[in-house]
Design goal:
Blueprint: H1 9-30, H2 55-60, E1 79-85, E2 93-98, H3 99-115, E3 123-126, H4 136-148, E4 151-154, H5 170-179, E5 184-187, H6 189-202, E6 211-214, H7 221-234, E7 240-247, E8 252-255, E9 263-264, E10 271-276, E11 289-296, E12 307-316, E13 329-330, E14 335-336, E15 341-343, E16 346-348, H8 350-361, E17 366-370, E18 374-379, H9 384-398, E19 403-407, H10 410-413, E20 422-424
Helix pairs in contact: 3-4, 5-6, 6-7, 8-9
This protein binds zinc ion.
């Protein structure tokens, strides 16, 4: 099974289909939520007929997403652990893993480690804090190390609760990393960066550090570069950063095998990924950007089908040029859906159009106004040449051409709205 990542598409798809057939039978008989929906779904090709499950559906009644296990082998009914997913509101929802699922989680983490080229002599520094609710970040690092039979040291940064007494301050965390001779730093990027900065100030010896595994926060290329340089100053000259697109619903994440390689599905036998049109939910061809859906192919506790992870990205089934894997990859940085706006039928990331305008305008005031169309108001005297460049640059960034107008007062031109880079004036 481990070599599935590097076998061909045909082998991957055959295993996915076989696992889904087994999953489908269990769902039809034992899944409170999907039981009535799965009837006309015979194979993965039929999956688009199934409605999308949104986070709200799962959060509202998470217990209805757990398979009924009576009569199944013990491993499929014993609850091994319960992690929690947080949503935009409400209390965290329990995500149940049986013993069977935990064995799959170990396989998943082993594959994540293999894709990231972890070696038998690596030592992981676990820089995730403890949390109030059981959460995959802290605990799965220990399991990942177990799955590879390598060493791990937990630095226990911070204090999640007044009832917890073992939290370490950043200086102590630096010393833990130093004395354990860690080669891999694993945590959220902002905290890994902070540990490296403090290590530099303290003159700590982090000469073995060669990798950072980061997840949980957006990492721009500038931030990646900054983190890479900090590692290379303290650690090895060839140190690099591998970003993971993590989620509670995978109990792991899709990982990079090299910077910019895309986020590899580390367990195609467990996870079927779709990228779909954000409104019709029809599958999009490789290379087109849309909503990311996850279907569990091989779980016995919480099972989700066509589950919207809440992000938009771009899928490919092509072979990875870096590692040679044939597993599917997300090749654009997943972005939260709620950041996107629709203009003239095109989904647009406001950050990209702001960045395009900023690159040409520098400190000059400007504001995008979205009605049925897109307008870019720029403070100052009319300048046709600049206007043309702005329109072309924004079009190239987001695929929509703005109407550029030069105005004396941005705030006035945009009505009563206070000055923001992007305002929406429509129902
Ligand atoms: Zn790769």
């Amino acid at each position: 099974m481990n070599d599935l990542l590097f076998s061909d598409r045909g082998a991957i798809e055959a295993v996915q289909e076989a696992n889904f057939a087994e999953m489908r039978e269990l769902l039809a008989a034992r899944h409170p939520y999907y039981r009535s929906l799965i009837g006309n779904i015979a194979s993965l090709a039929d999956l688009p007929r199934l409605p999308v499950t949104h986070k709200e559906h799962f959060m509202r009644e998470p217990e209805r997403f757990v398979l009924e296990s009576a009569g199944l082998p013990d491993e499929m009914g014993i609850v091994w652990d319960v992690m929690h997913t947080t949503g935009t509101s409400g209390k965290p929802a329990p995500f149940v893993s049986t013993t069977f699922d935990f064995y799959r989680i170990l396989e998943l983490h082993r594959n994540m480690m293999r894709l990231r080229r972890v070696r038998p002599d690596d030592i992981v520094a676990n820089l995730f804090p403890l949390t109030k609710h059981p959460h995959g970040a802290f605990i799965r690092v220990l399991h990942a190390a177990a799955a590879m039979s390598i060493r791990v040291v937990s630095a226990l940064p911070g204090n999640p609760s007044p009832y917890f007494t073992l939290g370490n301050k950043t200086d102590e965390v630096v010393r833990v990393v130093e004395r354990s001779r860690a080669s891999i730093l694993w945590g959220v990027p902002s905290y890994v960066r902070r540990v490296l900065a403090r290590a530099e100030e303290l003159g700590a010896d982090l000469r073995n550090v060669r990798l950072a595994f980061v997840t949980g926060e957006g990492v721009s290329e500038a931030a990646r570069n900054d983190l890479t340089q900090a590692m290379r100053r303290c650690g090895r000259p060839d140190a690099w950063v591998s970003i993971s697109y993590g989620s509670t619903e995978t109990q792991g994440g899709l990982v990079e095998c090299a910077p910019g390689s895309g986020y590899h599905n580390p367990a195609p036998d467990q996870f079927y990924i779709e990228v779909v049109h954000p409104e019709t939910f029809a599958p999009l061809p490789d290379g087109e950007t849309g909503l990311v859906l996850l279907t569990h192919l091989r779980r016995r506790g919480t099972v989700l089908l066509r589950y919207a992870l809440g992000d938009v990205s771009t899928l490919t089934h092509g072979r990875c040029a870096h590692c040679g894997a044939w597993t599917d990859r997300l090749i654009t940085t997943p972005r939260r859906v709620d950041k996107l706006v629709k203009i003239k039928g095109t989904l647009v990331n406001p950050d990209l159009m702001v960045a395009a305008a900023e690159a040409l305008l520098g400190g000059r005031e400007f504001q995008f106004v979205i009605t049925e169309a897109l307008t870019l108001n720029v403070a100052g005297a009319a300048d046709d040449d600049l206007g043309g460049k702005l329109a072309a640059s924004v079009k190239s960034a987001i695929g929509v051409t703005p109407k550029v107008q030069f105005v004396s007062d941005i705030t006035q031109a945009a009505g009563a709205w206070k000055l923001k880079r992007v305002v929406e004036l429509r129902p």
